[in-house]
Design goal:
Layout: H1 19-27, H2 31-60, H3 73-84, H4 86-112, H5 114-125
Helix pairs in contact: 1-2, 3-4
Length: 126
């Protein structure tokens, strides 16, 4: 089973091993800025940590499954927000369900009200 909330190497947008593009895909940050940050960390003296970490992640992490490349952009945005801020995503989904419930209650109230019968009578007279 493919997990949409897991970190994957993004081989389709990769420059070297897909680590930076995977981080960018996972966090929603542009891959250019992730690459710039990795290069800056390497040049500013943290190369002893970033270079081995980069290659270890590149060798250990799973490649992004092909079916995740062709998902709807709205679904992709939803899963990205679920990865980065799950609490706000849950609040958003709960709000969406409350809105759907409210709209269904409005439809039910309209269908069971006497004004619907009056509207159908008026439509029949036309």
């Amino acid at each position: 089973m493919v997990r949409k909330t897991k970190f994957y190497l993004d081989k389709r947008n990769a420059k070297l091993m897909g680590v930076c593009s995977g981080i960018a895909d996972y966090t929603g940050v542009d891959a250019l800025w992730v690459r710039v940050a990795v290069i800056a960390l390497t040049l500013l003296g943290a190369g002893w940590l970033t270079v081995p970490a980069y290659f270890i992640v590149g060798l250990v992490a799973d490649k992004k499954p092909l079916e995740l490349y062709d998902i709807d952009p709205r679904e992709d945005a939803f899963w990205r927000s679920a990865r980065t801020s799950p609490a706000s995503t849950i609040r958003s989904v709960r709000g969406d369900f409350r809105e759907i419930d409210r709209r269904l209650q409005d439809v039910e109230a309209y269908l069971t009200s006497s004004s619907r019968n009056l509207a159908s009578e008026i439509d029949r007279l036309r």
